[in-house]
Amino acid sequence: MLATRRALLLAPLATPALAQAPFPDRPIRLVIGYPAGGGVDTVGRPIMQKLSERLGQPVVVENRGGANGNIAMEFMARVEPDGHTLFMGDAGNLGITHALYPNLPFDTQRDFVGVAQLTAGPSVLVVSSAVPARTMQEFVALLKARPDALHFGSAGIGSGPHLFYESWRRAAGVSMTHVPYRGTGPALQGLLAGDVQLMVGNYGVFRGAHEGGRVRVLAISSPERHPALPDIPTVRETGTDWALVGFNGVIAPARIPPARRQVLEDGFRAVMQQPEMVAQMISLGSVAAFTPGAALDAHMREQRAFWTRLVREANIQAE
Prior knowledge:
Blueprint: H1 2-18, E1 28-32, H2 39-55, E2 59-63, H3 70-76, E3 85-90, H4 91-100, H5 108-111, E4 112-122, E5 124-128, H6 136-145, E6 151-154, H7 160-172, E7 177-180, H8 184-193, E8 198-201, H9 203-211, E9 215-220, E10 245-253, H10 258-272, H11 275-283, E11 287-292, H12 293-314
Parallel strand pairs: 1-2, 1-3, 6-7
Antiparallel strand pairs: 3-10, 4-10, 4-11, 5-8, 5-9
Helix pairs in contact: 2-10, 4-12
């Protein structure tokens, strides 16, 4: 009886120690490894706004461009793994980077865990309106007639757009001069200025210029047409047997507490299933395609193997 009374007296003292602190209890920082205006940034910001509403805390987007996102990912490998700092990346960050940079101070499979895949994004092949070719067939014929005479602009050597282009170029049997920029935004300015004639990337990057008649979308990389771009043919429809779809996902430091990882995963699941978010992603040329963190981990491993083969076969060297 005495032991029972002692336990009852001590129970209130133990409760605060056992109670878990609410999460998140302060703003979440979302790091993106590219400058503002790129494909990840374009789709990421509206998603993070909805996540903020869902979690009841601000989600602050922080762009840390440079070295195809490696600077940002090295920073992420050192942050406190408490779930308040996350990284959103694309195939370039989450699948390609180790194919190009074998001696990085971080490893995506060792140092990070997936929180959620958010989108599946086909790329569009876009030319300046000054290019005389009005169809992909005409553009391929132009490139074959003038090898390396025209210029392709990318977010940098080894970036997702660069390797998407390289994969398409090899399938189409054409050759262009590659002009790497420090991000998609600067590359787009080069396209609009006529310094480069072709870019590859998420439609959201080019939407304003396309609607304004300053660029021409020749084809899309997905196996089927996109609902927001029903008049744009797939590359396969234009005569080249090639299709490739990218993705965007969120990762966290590997030592994030599992319960916090789950809170974030559940938050992203709820956001990406909202009808207005599904519609907005389609309007940006992407597709809402949520998968949980464990599935993203597996996808990252598969992507790493795929791009490593391509980089070796194409003998692409990082800057």
